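pinned: reference chain
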Amino acid sequence: MSADAVSSSPDSSFLNSREKTGSGQTDLNTASTLLPASKSEINWYEEPPALEATGLQLFLHNLLRPPIAFYHPARESMSENTTTPALRVKGRLMSASEIERTLVRLAHEIVEKSNGSDDLTLIGIKRRGVPFADRLGKLISNIEKRPVETGTLDIQFYRDDLSTADVRPVVTPGALGCDVEGRDVVLCDDVLYTGRTIRAALDALFDHGRPRRVQLAVLIDRGHRELPIEATYVGRHVPTSSREIIEVKFHEVDNDEQVLLVERVD
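pinned: its structure tokens
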């Protein structure tokens, strides 16, 4: 390359302009002459030639290139949709007729141990404990030929009770719908598991009054107790593992009538 070619290049003009200013800062008018006058002088959409491109052209080319997306595992995991655990039905524990026969048996047991129904009150724990208590109340009324008071106790969980870790039942304030002061109360729930729901129900019940006696009736007792709580009236004892779940379905809530044993599938 000749000396004239070197002196006429944009880089040499840039250096000469720095020597003329003497302040170490680039003259804006001189720097503007280094930029291409039109798009035809530099193609921003193609890789510039490695040997012919000047330092300023390489800088402008890289500045205008679209950013490169990098894989980040944390972002990838945040974009994934959370899915509920899959459940597999292992078998049917009770049919509609078996549920009805079990309720009839429990109703006779309650009448026998309560010496009638004079001071008897049935309290159902939402959700499926409510139709359970209503059905028992109607059956006892037919046996004793007199109405039996029933009420509702609303207990909610912070999350679904699929495991026993950090399950904290929360009692929703509200009227029971009946008086419990000095009466024989039977708490009704569909499934007895860890006992935490019953513990919360007892605390709420005594906030509404002081019963003379409190008993517990459940359709299914599946074990795995974490508190010293046992049911007085049990429809059926079903030994289960921690991966299994008992699903009780009533027409009043589920438009279906059966008891299923399901298992979580990883």
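why pinned: The radius of gyration is 39 Å. DSSP finds nine helices and ten strands in the chain.
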